[in-house]
Amino acid sequence: MRHFGHIPSAARAALFHREPAEFTADSPARTLAVALGATLYSPATRPRLADAVRKQAARGVVSMVLCLEDSIGDADVAAGEANLVAEFRALADDRAAGGPDVPLLFIRVREPAQITDLTARLGDTVALLAGFVLPKFTEHRGRAFLEALTEAEHTAGRRLFAMPVLESPELLHLETRAETLAGIAALTDKYRDRILALRLGVTDFCSAYGLRRSPDMTAYDVKVVSHVIADVVNVLGRADGTGFTITGPVWEYFRPGERIFKPQLRRSPFLEGRAEDLRTALIEHDMDGLLREIELDRANGLLGKTCIHPTHVLPVHALSVVSHEEWSDAQDILRPERDGGGVLRSAYTNKMNEVKPHRAWAERTLVRAEVFGVAREDVGFVELLTAGLAG
């Protein structure tokens, strides 16, 4: 797998100063956590699920969650489990016949017992499974999930990752938040080798207060939500070796709707070629709000995003590519001769790079550059979006 691998090699060469590197399900966890990108959710009950997985992989999706939890009704769980077992077999048979690789596949379960049960039922097709998504994760509830994951690893004979979802009322409510975060930190540290990333359930946060943001607003405009995100990053997203990759919240909108505020996308990056048409299409589909939220995700320490519609994938990936300027700054900061610290003017002569304070940012930037690539100097997200749509 590689990001932007669905577009022709000549087009990639024209876009990237350094192309995205290839990775597999066996790559180091640090690489995979960053490489998740836009993680596309699909109900486990979906008919012809294997075909859908292959179709999305061909469009550039590299991680998917097949959901047995909130996306399906209580009465459909057994059917969803049976469908997963059958569709994993279809995917495995296709791979054995020389078919293409599949994305990193995760199953979102409801209860710990589903982890061990499904692992056994999948049989040899468990080789296609990257891990499990654990809902409403707290120290108390999460322990049983992670113990079941450990048992499932022994059954499967291979590494399986966990992606806890932080969405419980105990985390949202101010009076219990600090204690809940401390408990989650202690438990996830104990199982650090199995925690690939932490996901945020912002829809559940809003539900607790009867809220729903409009397509003109980001999660960061809903203050009760943005405060939780800040506290989660504060405790669980530190760059001192104790933190984890934390992914951005879901963007709910994918159909045109009435707009309240003026469009947030500036016209200037879109004035050439197909770009103006692209700008218009994005605004008509409420995607400018998504683009702004992706930028705010990264500014607030989040990487990647939960997605519920295929049209959200490419914007997430395009805005995850490291710009040539970012890469240049990170390279300068991490030069061996800079180990003693100091301050230097950036190669773009537009900012100060202070070596010691900016080191953690630079290290994270180079990991992102490895999996998402480095754009050429004259290439921005508009060109990446346009190429991805054409591919």
From TrEMBL:
Keywords: Magnesium, Metal-binding. GO terms for biological process: oxaloacetate metabolic process. It comes from Streptomyces termitum. Its cofactor is Mg(2+). PANTHER family: CITRATE LYASE SUBUNIT BETA, LYASE BETA SUBUNIT, PUTATIVE (AFU_ORTHOLOGUE AFUA_4G13030)-RELATED. InterPro entries: C-C_Bond_Lyase-like, Pyrv/PenolPyrv_kinase-like_dom, Pyrv_kinase-like_dom_sf. One of its GO terms (molecular function) is magnesium ion binding. This is ATP/GTP-binding protein.
